[in-house]
Amino acid sequence: MLSKSQIKLIKSLSQKKFRNKHRLFIVEGIKGVQEFINSDFEIVSIYVTDANLKVSEKYLTIIDEKDLKKISFLSTPQKALGVFKIPEDKDAEIKTLTVVLDGVRDPGNLGTIIRLCDWFGVENIICSKDTVDCYNPKVVQASMGSLTRVKVLYKDIREVLERNKEIPVFGAMLEGDNIYSEKLPEKAFILMGNEANGISEEMQEYISKPLTIPQFGKIKETESLNVATATSIILSEFRRNASIER
Amino acid sequence: MLSKSQIKLIKSLSQKKFRNKHRLFIVEGIKGVQEFINSDFEIVSIYVTDANLKVSEKYLTIIDEKDLKKISFLSTPQKALGVFKIPEDKDAEIKTLTVVLDGVRDPGNLGTIIRLCDWFGVENIICSKDTVDCYNPKVVQASMGSLTRVKVLYKDIREVLERNKEIPVFGAMLEGDNIYSEKLPEKAFILMGNEANGISEEMQEYISKPLTIPQFGKIKETESLNVATATSIILSEFRRNASIER
Q: Which of B232, B238, B239, B245 to mutate to test the interface with A (most CBs of A within 10 A)?
């Protein structure tokens, strides 16, 4: 049985202000919860109905479906829900390719970008403070465990770029150079902007090379590509040379 | 004022069986509705609150916010809702690059793929009959008007590939050849599979070349890429050569 105060605490974690107050976030689904248990994240408590999870008993509480429904953020709860600690925001050490997000707002987009960075071996994502919180339950869900392997840091991104002036900044723009013709280095910042407005004016001045994914359709009415889709193509372009052994 | 039967009819269009019965679908939002008005789709009726749409008056009904809320599928209705006719499913003439979907189920994924095909100049998407319906309101919303420029056809995809045996079939697989090393032709089928199960066994035998997007992350636990994300990278690879003038 869950106490009322436990339910209230967990439910409050849908809101950023309570996540920040308690420094806690939640993960749902057996696979996802197990990935976070196995990771560097600190476990607080794990609630399961009949799932088989490899975790020390001291964290484990068996609950019934009805209780799980009370604490779950999913329309169809997934047998396991874990509460974990939000780690301290460390300084990012920029070693290789790093994605910088300037005001990405949609949780699904951030989740997809985290998953992409995991796939393409990008260790750090540096987000402006107005980017959606990566511990938002929808982001955690969409990132499919990749959040255990990719560091997402919230910084004054202008300050980060200032401090790393020797690293080139490639910005995704509607009017830029054809990405397919560019020589892309192994160490770089890839700057992606907000869904509706793109990269903010303030940040545009930091771009050393604006990149565009050329459009092939006949009619030019087509909207710009979605930010997660554009990120996938850009990361693929940065990585493709390394993967062709010739 | 809307009659009860009008409201009932429009609301019923959230379900595929009623869309098929009436051969109607809906579009929401000023920009989207205007794009469909300007396209080859046949207009049935347009409902607006205070939007300024360029359309013959005979189709136009001005309604209040309360009525719009009754017929809208959005949590925040967008001032305009259009009802259009579903066109007859024609035979696909395979001229260039064609995307073939084998059981894609998520409306957001199909919407994103339609938008991507629009961007990359792919004229036809051929879907297996168990792929999500492109006139589903969520697909229409996610495709952002691209459905007016890209033809989405529902066919026995096995039969289509049989009939076009001279065109190579590139299938997205977890175990395939490195896409970055392949010479990709201008005329081809790109076969993409279901979110959870990939390309069905039945269809795998039609693949002339299995393609894989290499993974760069250290840990191999990473889930496969999302089908829409993988489609974006594959389409980009097919088009990149054409865009580099050297």
A: B232
